[in-house]
Predict the structure.
Amino acid sequence: MTLPYVLEQQVGFVLRQVNQRHLALFGEMMIGELTPTQFSAIVKLREHGSCSQNRLGRLTAMDGATIKGVIDRLTRRGITETSPDPDDARLLMVSLTAAGRRLAEQAVPCAARITEATLAPLSTAERARLLALLDQLR
Amino acid sequence: MTLPYVLEQQVGFVLRQVNQRHLALFGEMMIGELTPTQFSAIVKLREHGSCSQNRLGRLTAMDGATIKGVIDRLTRRGITETSPDPDDARLLMVSLTAAGRRLAEQAVPCAARITEATLAPLSTAERARLLALLDQLR
DNA sequence: CCGCGATCATTAGCATACAAACGAAGTTCC
DNA sequence: GGAACTTCGTTTGTATGCTAATGATCGCGG
């Protein structure tokens, strides 16, 4: 006797839907037309000051091809800027512009509200439990 | 005094990474070059026999534009086939081909193993807890 | 039976994501 | 000092996934 396969109870399917809801909330609530990945890059640049493009990708869990597209779009909008590293000709250093730093200041509290909205159905204890469980699957 | 904003502890960021890991496992372990969304469509067609394209999208949590691309690719590979509904000229009915049904039989147990691999770090009780928590955020 | 709103499929545009392949540039080891 | 390996950035191709617009069709109310 085999357990039935119920798509709606599979972790991958549920994960995709939870992610969809979070993405929708992010799209509604975030300022400056920032996407979650663009916001991640900005946060890490704010912490690290300046960073090579690939290293920024590792900090934000994006591969080289993906982070390049993200930085290209942010740079086109004047939020980030790039320059070659004088000591290592392979590296493309990325940093926030002044406008990017101003945007980051406003975006971080906004992102905190988005996290709150995403987790709204859960109590404080449940939120901690969820994060701890997800962390093991990372 | 404000809590610091730690990107790595935000539910959206963790969710994206867990999803990445699941997608990687899916890519390694699934047969027939099926992606998670393609597999979802196949499972639902197997349950429902035949289904309009948009309704299939609702069953699998994909919007009209996305499900169309998925079905186009499956049809191009001979896994699904489409036909107009004789009673409602707006509908495009989608169903599995014989090859699609054979593939579905093998893919479902494979998907069960992928779910198992994704949840491997958790105990049975933890898995149930995680699913219950995620379900509330759907 | 006619208009109006709803549904359906399609298309275009944008933004992730990953794999694979490439050349350029470092690093290590003999 | 040179070969082998690694890292980095880039490009190409494929697959989601969303929004918005479009046109066809359906159902309902008057």
User: Anything to note?
Assistant: The beta strands of chain A are 50-52, 80-84, 92-96.
